Amino acid sequence: MSEFGELGIWLVRQESESLGTTLQTHLGGELYRPWLNAPLPQKEQFAAVYRQYAKWVMVTASGIAVRFLDGLPQDKHSDPAVVVVDEAGRYAVSLLAGHEGGANGLAYRVASAVGAVPVVTTATEALKPLVVGIGCRKGATVEQIETAVKQALGERSVHEVREVATIDLKANEPGLLEFCERHGLALRVFARDTVAARSWVSKPSDWVKQNVGVDGVCEPCALLAFPRGHLLVPKMVCDGVAVAILEDKV
Fold it and tell me: What is the domain range of residue 134?
């Protein structure tokens, strides 16, 4: 990790300032507006601060990011992580130091913050075939979540899980966060309106409808995270934790 800061957010154009502000609100970090130092080329400005942060989010096209990074990376174990977000906020691409530097996890955090699709290409994560959708009662413990997920997985292993998906109301649920951290899993969060628009569930819940405003959480969130997957385990509930599992059908 850099001795200076955890996260830098680099905006190439002033038009992306609104997206940059949203990222800073959700992720913290230092926001860079290089046009304010117009006499200096942006590439030189970026090179001067590149190693002052452990992680970077660059709001720009991937080609521009690659040109900015030219000659800067040295070693995957020490290079800052870099995630690239297009100005429309559609994709969050883990570009550099994905596994070792934490760019893969950062891509998921960025995606959850702005409603983007995380793009991770490292084999360690990308080749895992399962997505787990989780909904839970407030205050569900990590042990309750662990038990429910293992019950749903059956003979399958948590090591086969690519990511966990849930609704924004559960984004900061301590037990869920601890479960993901314990197993090194990325947590992908969907806005309630997005979940409501993807309303298919096998077992609608009156309680969830009354308290959350959607018919269900675990199945729609898993399907949103993994549209090409098939439902391996439909919604099952264990001690206040609802779990659904999708598997890559390709």
Answer: 128-248
CATH number at residue 57: 3.40.50.11220
State the total domains in the chain.
Answer: 2
Predicted structure pTM score: 0.84
Among candidate residues 79, 105, 124, the one where a domain is terminated: 124
Domain end position, chosen among 100, 124, 148: 124
Q: Is the domain of 17 the same as that of 116? A: yes
Same domain membership, residue 45 and residue 14: yes
Ramachandran class of 240: left when φ > 0, alpha when ψ lies in -120 to 50, beta otherwise: left
pLDDT, tens digit, 9 for 90 and up, residues 71-124: 999 988 889 999 999 999 999 999 998 887 889 999 999 999 999 999 998 877
Task: Please report, as a single letter, which amino acid is at residue 223.
Answer: L
CB-based contact 202:235 (threshold 8 Å): yes
Residue-by-residue DSSP string for the chain: --SSEEEEEEESSGGGHHHHHHHHHHH--EEE-GGGGTTS-HHHHHHHHGGGEEEEEEES-HHHHHHHHTT----TTTSPEEEEE-TTS-EEEEEES-SSSSHHHHHHHHHHHHTPEEE---HHHHT--EEEEEEE-TT--HHHHHHHHHHHHTTS-GGGEEEEEEEGGGTT-HHHHHHHHHHT-EEEEE-HHHHHHS---SS--HHHHHHTSSS-SHHHHHHHH-TTEEEEEEEEEETTEEEEEEEE--
**Residue holding tokens 């109301």?**
169
Whether residue 134 is found in the same domain as residue 111: no
